[in-house]
Structures are given as structure tokens and as C-alpha cells.
Design a protein that fits this description.
4-stranded antiparallel β-sheet, 7 strands
Length: about 150
């Protein structure tokens, strides 16, 4: 059992109302794409879509020490993987409903919507992603300042 899968199972224990299927298969997509020097810091599950009624696009989202990875195994053949590096990250927005909430990740290239997340998990996810991205964005600012001189 990989580290990403263990993190996802712990997340589901804490937030059982989050809708997610095929956790082991989706986790394996992320684990397959981890670089040798990359460590998973935090993982959760969500639907990668904007519809509360579409529960068939489960994804595992992992925050590593280098980037955010979003892995989805296809039902028939193949898989999808999104990679969001700190320099591509623009903003994070949270939307909470009665039972579930959504997380919107705005990047330079795309707008990612993660839905059907247990309402009580939203604060935890926002804290993990925001604190990591703020720290990493500061590193990019320092590197860019040194390159300008």
C-alpha cells in the first residue's frame, strides 16, 4: 500500500461524506508520477467536475513537496493526470453548500473544479494548499529577484 493511498484512506476516515470511488486505482496514478525526490505531503479525494450530480469522475489530489498532482483512472483504458506547479498556481476559492462543497483552483492554464467534498473538510484542504503555495510562491519571488540583478 503506497503512501498516497494511506493518506487518502485517512482523509476518508476523517471525512466519510466526501464522495470518491476507486481510491486505490486513482492513488496509483499519482504514485506512478511521483519523481524520485518528491514526497506526498497531503492527499484527499474529490470529483473533478462542477456538478453535484456527476459522481463518476473521482480523483485523488495530492500535494507534494514540488506540486499538486490530480490523478484519475479511466474506467476502460488509460488515465488522466494534472500537475500544478507553484509558479502556475494563481488562486484558490472555496464554495460550501449544505452537505458538500467545492474547491476551485485557478492556474495560468486552466480552472480546476473539485466537487462533492464533505463540508467539514473544506477548511483543512484550504489550509494545506494555501499555506504550502504561499511558502513556495515566496521562494519563486526570491529566485526571480536574484535573476533580475
Amino acid at each position: 500500500m503506497g503512501q498516497v493511498y494511506k493518506q487518502v484512506l485517512k482523509f476518508k476516515e476523517r471525512h466519510p461524506f466526501t464522495i470518491g470511488w476507486r481510491l486505490k486505482r486513482n492513488s496509483s496514478i499519482v504514485e506512478r508520477h511521483l519523481n524520485p525526490d518528491e514526497k506526498p505531503l497531503y492527499s484527499f479525494v474529490a470529483q473533478k467536475n462542477d456538478s453535484p450530480f456527476n459522481i463518476f469522475e473521482s480523483a485523488v489530489i495530492t500535494l507534494t513537496n514540488k506540486r499538486i498532482l490530480i490523478g484519475r483512472d479511466r474506467v476502460v483504458v488509460g488515465y488522466f493526470l494534472n500537475s500544478i506547479t507553484p509558479d502556475m498556481f494563481n488562486d484558490l476559492k472555496i464554495s460550501s453548500g449544505i452537505i458538500w462543497g467545492k474547491i476551485y483552483i485557478d492556474t495560468i492554464k486552466e480552472f480546476v473544479t473539485l466537487s462533492n467534498i464533505s463540508k467539514d473538510a473544506l477548511t483543512e484542504i484550504e489550509s494545506e494548499i494555501s499555506s504550502y503555495m504561499m511558502k513556495e510562491k515566496q521562494k519563486y519571488a526570491i529566485i526571480n529577484r536574484h535573476e533580475d540583478h
